[in-house]
Amino acid sequence: MIVAMHLGLGGLAAEEQADDRCQECHGEKDLTKELPEGGEKSLFADEAVLRRSVHAAVKCAECHVEVGDEHPDDGKVPQPVACARCHERQSHSFGASVHGLAQARGNLKVPDCAACHGTHEVLARQNLDSMIRKENLVKTCGGCHPTEVADVGASVHGRAMAKGEEDAATCLDCHAEHRISALGGDVTTARSAEACSKCHASEKINSRFGMPDDRVQTFNESFHGLAAQGGSTVAANCASCHGYHRILPSWDPASSIHPSRLMETCGKCHPGAGEHFVEGKIHSVEAGGGGIGEEVNRWVKLVYLWLIGLTVFFLGMHNGLAWWRKAAAIRRALGETVERMDFNQRFQHLVLMVSFILLAVTGFALKFPNTWFAHLMGSEDIRRSVHRIAGLVMLGGGVYHLWYVALTRNGRQLLRDLWPRCRDLGDLVTNLGHLLLGRPKAKFGRFGYPEKLEYWAVVWGTLVMGVTGLAIWFKIDVTHWLPRWVVDVAVTVHYYEAILACLAIVIWHFYHVMFDPDVYPMNFAWLSGRVPKKWHHEEHPLDPAPESDEIPK
Fold it and tell me: Could you count the other beta carbons within 10 Å of the beta carbon of residue 141?
């Protein structure tokens, strides 16, 4: 019958009778088997225990698949039950744990699934008798780690567990559940700090147990924390000072952070550490241990902040004035000028420039809220509001520009001059010959392919960023008509189009208006509307621009 069941041929009747057939032998309490290495193993399977386990509906043969038509009565010990057949995800995690890796190396003495969950008595975590229930974990883990469990029992964590505290840290809170990790050794400095942070960065837990709420933050800002974040494997972590399992409060004389033991604790990494060395604060970058030291340090910090601010202000003002004077002198030396941009065009450029900068800065601050420049702009609400206002300003400027090029004489002429033509492709080929081989450069009219390329890129970018930005802003309304993935795609396009636009501005636009040696330190047409006549004739010889005798001041 068992053969029929294993082949899937026995039908429901066979499955119903399978457990009864197993119990004919395994229901005997004195049923044992001699082990090859000596000793005996009980083969008793208490049916009552099995029926109240989480596997109550599972048939014996569904787990013990190795028991086929030849029952192993020949002295062979069946292979352990393969839990992975039903619990694939948990088994995969276990395989990456310290226990699983040890098993893979051939160590069969390390715990397996049954060692922690039981065999036939596998119970749900909520069951009072479950081996993995919070109150029973110490006993379960203690079967293999008695020393560590004894230390935990005497620690602040063990005492909290003994009191029945709901949020008390257990073995699994620190070492994980199935993917159990080792937290000792040099290579796990960052992992150890991360394990402690899960609880000690929680406002809920800190409030419930009356602990300071800044311990994780101040450690991360300390020398030890910064070194660990930078990849150091030797910097002290939480356990280096507080211990691993026998973690005691600072007022306990046995604690490694008790004042009487600080020289010993710090001396492990800092040989020769004396009384004054251990007075410093560990969970803060501030020097001093209170009293006059802390007050002196506070005033030094305050003085330096003022000194830095005043130094940057006066040096920046001095060099800014010097730059402006020298730039003006260079402009005067270039002689006569011609008009390049009228007031209306300069105003539109200013609106575009200011809105673009605000959009770029606030947009990346919203994308990366933990960066220093994001914190300079205040809260997330402020950054989002400024971003949206700047977006509306840019779109408003775009709408005005459409009106300008459609209904004004100068606007229509601007559009005609910026319209792409076949000649532009020829100019590009000619200029490549000039740049690569030193041949004569292309002759441009009012606008050459560099300006046209940038203008139409701005048109395209404004359209794309406007549409995607509005879709993100009004996502609820958009999803009334379109699938949600449309908004997700809009977020992706909006982000990468922003990167593309910023890089284009820096690499292309900044070169032509600032870093090009012919216009350095800047093409001032965006401010005054005028450019040197000599430069204009050299760069745009085919443009019949009006002459002017004006000399820039």
Answer: 23
The token pair at 502 is 């910023």
Digit-coded pLDDT (tens) for 121-163: 888 888 888 888 887 888 888 888 888 888 888 888 888 888 8
Cα separations in angstroms, 400 against 168, 345, 408, 411, 431: 63, 11, 11, 11, 34
Q: How many whole angstroms separate alpha carbon 148 and alpha carbon 142?
A: 7
Q: Where are the beta strands (DSSP E) in 328-459?
A: 337-339
What CA–CA distance (Å, rounded) separates 134 from 127?
10
Alpha-carbon gap, residue 177 to 125, rounded angstroms: 12
Q: Which H or E element spans position 42?
A: strand 40-42
Q: What's the rounded Cα separation, in Å, for the pair 89 and 231?
A: 30
* pLDDT, tens digit (0-9, with 9 covering 90-100), for 230-275: 777 778 888 888 888 888 988 889 888 888 888 888 888 888 888 8
DSSP 40: E
Phi-psi region of 489 (alpha: psi -120 to 50; beta: other; left: phi over 0): alpha
- Show the tokens assigned to 322: 């010097």
User: 193-209, pLDDT tens digit by residue?
Assistant: 778 888 888 888 888 88
Cα separation, 311 vs 304, in Å, equals 10
* Model pLDDT, residue 351: 97
